[in-house]
UniProtKB/TrEMBL annotation:
Keywords assigned by UniProt, alphabetized: Glycoprotein, Membrane, Notch signaling pathway, Signal, Transmembrane, Transmembrane helix
Name the UniProt record assigns to this protein: Nicastrin
The UniProt record lists the keyword Signal: yes
Family: Belongs to the nicastrin family.
Localization: Membrane
Superkingdom field: Eukaryota
Length: 906
């Protein structure tokens, strides 16, 4: 610690060593400091604490250095450096070492206490790194031990413990510090001396006496906050002596205590999935809570009488409704939407009582951006010819002003039910009594109205705000594509003498709840079929290539007005893709093919080519150019999928099941009936593509999809993505990042790499499976694999190079580099590239941002008891203020000591 004279130009009459507690001017000890106040001369040092005392002009400073024993001498000409032992700044010119001394005040060079200007509890100190005396300017400070820098604005100073001489770590800012007014050193766990009076401080909250530096007498000035004698060491004015660092410490301790109390009051619900807000060019859909969260008394919806209790007769509104999926219908949700007595809804995700059909999508998917509009022909607009999804209830496209959550954890569901039955259950039709079990849901969304409004507000903040806040983000990810003959990725526009047959499918799905989109029949069946077709077709086309190139593509964002396919067509039209529309000969799309009846499949074509009907991705190419195409599906008219775009379109809906007692590795290779069925479809697709590309019929029998590969893909996409096969396909760094978490992947497109950096997990899976099916193993090292352009024998324009983990088997060679004609292309709506947020031609879907998503339950008291508690608290506060004022005003009378009666000796 340091003692400095900052209030006057004369040396203090008595300096106390804060380490050995010896008075310098006292002659009773021979191990004391002697300071000459008129000359620059170090006379002696303390043998106990090895402390040096120097004087510069007429001000004194005590130097703590318990390691280095070099005698310091002051020099007027300073070439500043630092001691390699104690990391203190000193002068090294002319072989002399000095303390750094500010031109205005005598300060310690370590920057421990230095010159403290305590004005409204704000400390200022000398910056020891750049040697600038900081008064009002922003500068940095350096820890004398670890050399870490910290800004003095946060009022955290670097220091050493006086007793153990170790640089300590502050729990508040993760900097090596010890508070100069703090009670306990974090390292040696003993009391730290007060730097002003050299007394051991034992007060828990750092309420220490501050003495006058010049006369060492207690200043008769009382702080009106803590009623203690205090003095500012700079301006001599009365200030509160509780330092800011200690206040931060107290607040931290209080926060920890509050967290402990909070855990006793609230039960956090972790495994929940919210409904979030999405926006497009015209409106908003989804759900949100108020800014502080919505709270309501729990009530389980089990019958029509419960619904009437919630909406009409219940005495404790608003209610937080807990319901099974059987009651999660459009009619019930719209009745709640129109009532002010509902605070929110929590849906228990369970197959118990599941309806025979549930599709929250619309009856005519993507009707506003498809080719079949009023412009194309009124008889085809709005699915007038064919209602593709007649079972839809349209819940996903409603806007709810209250939060809606899905509860996935069975144990937490039981906790909620137990709380409801103990406190909220009606007995004989009577209302339950307080305390009642309540739930609070947080899902406040930042964006409102529509994409146009949201993006305009975001753009304004980016232009005029110092700390802009993004309100919403465009839905975006990547398409995956490959071809049987590699295409030059660096050459854009029309490819000479190239004719391609496009085989496409979608990569994404959605449901009412955010990122809860298993999409087994809606998406996975098409992905697996096309990948299996690639596996069956690729070896044959390498030996007997057909005249036309076969182009495989997986589109992202098709559930939201064809984001992926519209972007690819947009790039083709503007010569920004490896091919253009003139290179496209025809197109085949793989739709929902997992629930076919018997051996039936249906081919849907467009009026341009066959004068019939069509759907999905092909429509984007039809809008750009009259390209003949077909859509392969398991339905003739309406979807066979009863759970289209819902959270129940899972493995069970796709009829993927396994015998009992199989291990995960056995399930991975088990050929289910669904796998065999999709393998047959994939074989048909592969042969059709080969023949349509001009291949020889004699090679068709060699094209057969492997049911084992299909079984592995089905297991990974609908059962468990964390399996040995997926692990072998991905790079090692991705497997370590937790991308292979438990359960199946979710197919919601999300915000993708523009916001969070990494590519969506499903996109990565498809990319690396394609690389496995179409690529070849190389002898490149990991460094060469990342920079193949440095290898003369490799061609980065024709191939992508992927470093994969490889098999985990004992005889496996470990990670290796794969060369494959697999590429990623951006899947973002052209509307955002063109800044046309109100576009009617392209997708304008955005996702709102939010601060926090969480849910919790707790017991709530009656309103009367809450007001009574508040009133008592206010009364106690006012009474304590009155008592404090009375004691303060009578302090001289209450705390004055009685005068001693003189004794007379005769």
């Amino acid at each position: 610690m340091y003692r400095v004279c900052v209030s006057c130009v004369s040396c203090v009459s008595c300096i106390v060593c804060v380490s050995c507690m010896c008075c310098v001017s006292c002659m009773l000890s021979v191990i004391m400091y002697r300071v000459c106040v008129m000359y620059v001369l170090c006379v002696m040092y303390c043998m106990l604490c090895v402390m040096y005392v120097v004087c510069h002009h007429v001000s004194c400073v005590c130097h703590v250095c318990v390691v280095c024993h070099v005698l310091y001498v002051v020099c007027h000409v300073c070439c500043l450096s630092s001691c390699i032992v104690c990391f203190m700044y000193m002068c090294v010119s002319c072989l002399c070492r000095v303390h750094f001394v500010c031109r205005v005040r005598c300060v310690c060079h370590v920057g421990l206490v230095c010159v403290m200007y305590v004005v409204f509890v704000v400390m200022y100190a000398l910056c020891v790194s750049c040697h600038v005396c900081v008064v009002c300017r922003v500068s940095c400070m350096c820890c004398v031990s670890c050399r870490s820098y910290v800004c003095h604005v946060c009022v955290v100073l670097c220091a050493l413990c006086v007793l153990c001489a170790l640089c300590v770590l502050c729990v508040l800012c993760v900097m090596c510090i010890v508070c100069v007014m703090c009670v306990v050193c974090h390292v040696c766990v003993v009391y730290v001396f007060c730097v002003s009076c050299a007394l051991c401080v034992s007060c828990v909250l750092c309420f220490m006496y501050v003495l006058s530096v010049s006369c060492r007498s207690c200043v008769r000035c009382v702080c009106r906050v803590c009623f203690m004698n205090v003095l500012c060491v700079s301006c001599r004015s009365c200030v509160c002596h509780v330092c800011v660092v200690c206040v931060m410490y107290v607040l931290c301790v209080s926060c920890v205590s509050c967290s402990s109390v909070e855990r006793k009051i609230y039960v956090e619900l972790n495994d929940t999935v919210p409904c979030v807000r999405l926006l497009n060019a015209t409106h908003q859909i989804g759900c949100q809570s108020s800014m502080s969260g919505d709270t309501g008394v729990l009530h389980v919806l089990e019958s029509e009488s419960d619904l009437d209790w919630i909406l009409n007769t219940g005495p404790h509104p608003p209610y937080m409704v807990i319901m099974e999926t059987a009651f999660f219908s459009r009619s019930v949700m719209l009745r709640m939407k129109n009532s002010s007595r509902v605070a929110g809804v929590a849906v228990i995700v369970s197959k118990t009582g599941l309806a025979e059909n549930f599709s929250p999508h619309t009856t005519c998917p993507n009707q506003n951006t498809g080719v079949y509009s009023a412009k194309y022909g009124p008889e085809l607009a709005n699915c007038n010819m064919t209602m593709w999804n007649p079972l839809a209830n349209g819940l996903s496209y409603e806007d709810f002003a209250f939060p809606v959550f899905a509860l996935k954890d069975e144990n937490q569901t039981q906790v909620i039910r137990k709380c409801y039955e103990d406190h909220n259950l009606r007995l004989n039709g009577s209302a339950p009594q307080y305390p009642l079990c309540a739930m609070q849901l947080f899902s406040h969304m930042h964006a409102v109205t529509d994409t146009v409004t949201c993006m305009r507000r975001t753009d304004l903040q980016n232009k005029f705000s110092i700390n802009p806040e993004i309100l919403c983000d465009a839905l975006t990810d990547f398409n995956v594509w490959a071809s049987t003959r590699p295409l030059n990725n660096s050459a854009k526009g029309h490819a000479d003498n190239v004719s391609v047959v496009i085989a496409a499918t979608r990569l994404d799905g959605r449901s009412f709840f955010w990122q809860e989109a298993p999409a087994a029949e809606g998406t996975v069946s098409g992905i697996v079929t096309l990948l299996a077709a690639v596996q069956a077709l690729y070896p044959v086309v390498q030996l007997a290539p057909p005249p036309r190139n076969i182009f495989f593509t997986f589109f992202q964002g098709e559930a939201f007005d064809y984001i992926g396919s519209s972007k690819m067509v947009y790039d083709m039209e503007r010569k920004k893709f490896v091919i253009d529309l003139n290179n496209v000969h025809s197109m085949l799309e793989i739709g929902q093919v997992g629930l076919r009846s018997g051996r039936e499949l249906w081919m849907h074509s467009d009026p341009i080519s066959r004068m019939n009907s069509s759907s999905v991705e092909e429509e984007r190419f039809l809008r750009a150019r009259q390209i003949p195409g077909l859509v392969l599906a398991d339905h003739q008219t309406a979807f066979v999928n009863r759970y289209y775009e819902s959270m129940y379109d899972d493995a069970e809906n796709l009829k993927v099941s396994y015998p009992p007692n199989l291990s995960p590795e056995e399930k991975l290779v088990y050929e289910t009936e669904a796998a065999k069925s999709l393998a047959e479809v994939a074989t048909l697709v592969a042969r059709s593509l080969y023949k349509h590309a001009g291949g020889d019929d004699s090679n068709l029998n060699n094209i057969t999809a492997d049911p084992k590969i299909v079984a592995q893909m089905l297991y990974g996409f609908v059962i468990q993505k964390n399996n040995s096969w997926f692990q072998s396909l991905l790079p090692p760094y991705l497997t370590k990042k937790g991308i292979l978490s438990s359960g199946p992947p979710q197919f919601y497109i999300g915000l993708g790499p523009r916001t969070f950096g990494p590519v969506h997990s499903v996109t990565l899976f498809v990319q690396h499976i394609m690389a496995n099916l179409t690529g070849t193993v190389t002898n490149l090292t990991e460094t060469q694999c990342q920079k193949p352009d440095e290898i003369s024998t490799e061609n980065k324009d024709l191939y992508a190079y992927l470093w994969v983990s490889g098999s985990t088997a004992v005889n496996s060679s470990g990670p290796f580099c794969v060369r494959a004609p697999v590429r990623l292309s951006e899947a973002v709506s052209p509307a955002f590239e063109r800044l046309e947020y109100g576009s009617q031609d392209y997708s304008t879907w955005t996702e709102s941002r939010w601060k926090s998503i969480r849910a919790r339950i707790f017991l709530v008291a009656s309103r009367e008891l809450e007001m009574l508690t508040l009133g008592v608290g206010v009364a106690v506060l006012l009474l304590s203020l009155l008592v404090t004022y009375f004691i303060s005003s009578k302090a001289e009378l209450l705390f004055s000591s009685a005068r001693e009666t003189p004794t007379t000796t005769y």
